[in-house]
User: What shape does this take?
Amino acid sequence: MAGISQEVTRFGSTVRVKGALMLACGVVALVWQDETLVAAMLITGLLLAASGLYEMGIAVASRGETRGWPLALADGLACVGLAALTASITLLPFRTTMVLTSLWLALYAALVGALAFALWPMPRTRAALLAWATLDLLLAGMALFFRDATIFTLLYVGAGYAIAFGLFQLAAGIWMRRVVLPYVTPTRQAGWKPARHG
Assistant: This one.
């Protein structure tokens, strides 16, 4: 049980730090657009890649101790995928990037939606997850069908998404600390040994 609580603590801390840094990058990109927009998005991509690989490492290391390891693995893969999309802005044709962005948003919506159904008995958590999945699906449709979009549209919307995604990750990390961690942290009594008589 102690091993599970440590992994949950590490994963939750990673998610909170990632969320705070993404929020900061998104705000900087929108407030100082001319000077920092492209640089902030590239830094966000590097941040996503690093945190995603770290989360995947946590998932692999904890797969024998907790049933929740696929969530950390899926979130890590999603972050690496979003980092790759950020890099693709300068490498792939713009329309290809938009199609891939739409695909990523749809897949992430499916992941969040599945998590919402897994946590169905928690009404506030379920509502928040379903709301985020709906937002991702709406953005996926816009990325696929909005033909007048330019690379600057993608960068500005991407900066706004970085802010929203950062807030979402912060909330998820706080939820793990307040809701999940108490269930997996061993109690003091768990370490007691039965007394020997005679």
Observations:
- Residues 187-195 have pLDDT under 50 and may be disordered.
- The first helix runs from residue 2 to 31.
- The chain is about 80% helix and 0% strand.
